[in-house]
Amino acid sequence: EIGAAIAEIVGAIAVVISLIYLALQIRAQTKQSKLAAQHEVSGGIREVSLLFASEDISDIFIRANKDFDSMQDAELLRLIVVVTGLIRGWEEAFIENRDGSLEQSHWETLSRDYTQLLGAPAFLRVWGLRKQNYDADFGEYFQSYVVFERFEDIQAEKMQITDKHSDDQFT
């Protein structure tokens, strides 16, 4: 009877140790999965972003920001494809973050970068053309975050222009 009790205690201890080991393994696997997701999202974004280093795409982007409606069909197609790739990268990061696979700090950094970039007039025009093709939650986030941030930027630019002209009147 004592031997059976000792065996039962040893068995219970072994089960507890196994559960602790399993929990540690799951935690390590979760961390590795988050790192892999972060690396994959960042890699995709870098790949698409590098397209803007080409003279052709950067020229199209600059001209589209100045006068989107005067762009040739082939140029618009190229711009839409590149911008769609960027937005898809951000959408993927949004979903990874929403599902808990992407660290919050990485998500916040990406969002700041994207907000600055995608607030450009050409990007907002492409978003307007393609927004129905994205995850609904992401679409709401994009609309509230990017469009609002761009509105704040425009207001700040207007304030700077107004301040500059006011200063010029008194000198």
Description:
The chain is mostly helical. Helices cover about 85% and strands about 0% of the residues. It has helices spanning about 1-50, 55-65, 75-100, 105-120, 120-130, 135-170. Helix 3 packs antiparallel against helix 4 (about 105-120), helix 3 (about 75-100) packs across helix 5 and helix 4 crosses helix 6 (about 135-170). It is rod-shaped. Residues about 160-170 have low confidence and may be disordered.
Task: List the main descriptive attributes of the protein structure presented here.
171 residues; mainly alpha; 6 helices
Overview in brief:
With 171 residues, the protein is mainly α.
In terms of quaternary structure, what is this? single chain
Q: What coarse outline follows from CA principal-axis ratios? A: rod-shaped
| Helix proportion | over 70%
Compute the number of helices. Answer: 6
Profile the largest sheet. none
Class based on secondary structure composition and strand pairing: mainly alpha
Low-confidence residue ranges: 161-171
Mean pLDDT: 81
Strand content: under 5%
Rg, Cα atoms, Å = 26 Å
Ends distance: 101 Å
Q: How many β-strand runs? A: 0
Compressed to H and E, one letter per element, the order equals HHHHHH
